[in-house]
Specification:
By secondary structure, the chain is an all-alpha fold. The protein has helices at residues 4-26, 34-59, 63-76, 79-82, 97-131, 134-156, 164-167, 169-179, 183-217. The two termini are 22 Å apart.
Length: 218
């Protein structure tokens, strides 16, 4: 199936992040295992996009399945950029070795999680382009970026998680209504959406250039 190589590469990078965490544990210092959980959550949209992309390649335009998968993907997609905000947990003491190790460790987790999110966005975007009209797929893409930022706000500020959609959807609706006019929600949504958009544009340009270059060589 297409995409196995990127999955294996992302798995290696995830193991590298966990390795940094294991080194942290060897320091006998307090450890926060939520990083590993958040990294795992960033794999959910990645695997969702991987499977729906390959399924539609093989079986054609399964509109209903694509819509359901896209909603499920969108519910977990904010977990990818969410780990950027874990830098807020960093305690600064430039004379301590742990400060530097934690900086690299948190960056590694955030980087891998962000890679997972961007690759999943690329695969789900491919699916949308295959199943829907170009204008529809572009609308879905542009809407998903600030929505991911809004999901980060709900997780970091409102202390919610993706499972609340199943566990207690009433809390989701209540927090959505309270957050509509929150300036912090607007700032986080727009800025993280802009960041994801710029990074995705770079990824898209690199992939498209590689495809065209290979076609010229052949």
């Amino acid at each position: 199936m297409e995409g196995l190589y990127p999955l294996l590469l992302l798995l290696v990078l995830s193991l590298l992040a966990v390795f940094f965490h294991l080194v942290r544990i060897l320091f006998n210092a307090p450890v926060d295992f939520s990083m590993d959980w958040n990294l795992f959550l960033s794999w959910i949209p990645l695997m969702t996009a991987f499977f729906i992309n390959n399924i539609t390649r093989r079986f054609g335009h399964l509109h209903f399945l694509v819509i359901l998968s896209s909603l499920f993907w969108l519910a977990f997609f904010p977990n990818a950029p969410y780990m950027i905000t874990d830098i807020s947990h960093l305690s600064i003491d430039l004379t301590r070795d742990l400060t530097w190790h934690d900086t690299i460790m948190l960056f590694c987790y955030a980087e891998v999680s962000l890679f997972n999110g961007l690759v999943s966005l690329y695969w789900i975007h491919q699916t949308w382009r295959r199943v829907f009209r170009k204008s529809v797929s572009t609308t879905f893409l542009l809407a998903s970026l600030p929505l991911a930022g809004f999901g980060v706000y709900l997780g970091r500020v409102r202390r919610m998680n993706s499972w609340d959609i199943i566990h207690d959807p009433r809390i989701i609706l209540d927090n959505l209504l309270k957050s509509m006019l929150d300036r912090t929600a607007l700032v986080i949504s727009l800025e993280i959406g802009l960041l994801l958009g710029m990074l995705y544009l770079v990824l898209w340009a690199i992939v498209r250039f590689r495809v065209r270059y290979n076609k010229k060589d052949s």
